[in-house]
């Protein structure tokens, strides 16, 4: 069964950074932000969400650490995904095989990949502790359609590089959406792409879907 691990960084650093990624993305619903998001520069959005939502997660640490992932799963599923261009994220992770997938297969791939990331980030939410986020100077063009916002996650050990790729969504009130995450130099999509490509090359799109489903069932059964 394919393992489909996340980026190859230290587990503690990855979990801490993943937790902050989850917390940042969760901000949309926790703070009733959609009405303001379209008016914010991408770095301002990340900065505000980092501070507001980390505080909210820390206030609920006991519930998140009781061994039941259901509360964390609700946070991730209900609050993170509305702030992510998940179709783009999945298409980038699958690579060229995405263009050959049928609409039904694309829906299945997104659902399976979403569940895989839900387990990753729901578990990471339980690791939030005394982290704080330091914003790096924003050197992108605020009028661009695609930017990178760089941050440092301050922990008890060495700071962890944590960057975000965001795109400006079309339409009135679209605002910015996150579609990739960089933890210590490893982009999330890049980490999954070769694994997914290998699976597609060996057993096709349906094989990748089946492998993801099998991994998700194993994650669900794990304590």
| Strand ordering within the main sheet | 1-2-3-4-5
User: What is the assigned CATH homologous superfamily?
Assistant: Tgt2/MlaC
Poorly predicted regions: 23-36
Helix-residue proportion: 55-70%
Give the rounded overall mean pLDDT.
Answer: 78
CATH topology term? Nuclear Transport Factor 2, Chain: A
Determine the structural class based on helices, strands and strand pairing.
alpha+beta
What is the annotated CATH architecture?
Roll
Quote the beta fraction.
5-15%
End-to-end distance:
18 Å
Radius of gyration: 17 Å
Overall geometric form: globular
Major sheet attributes: 5 strands, antiparallel
Q: Estimate nothing, just give the exact number of structural domains.
A: 1
Helix tally?
Answer: 9
In N-to-C order, the SSE pattern is HHHHHHHHEEEEEH
The total of beta strands comes to 5
Assigned CATH class: Alpha Beta
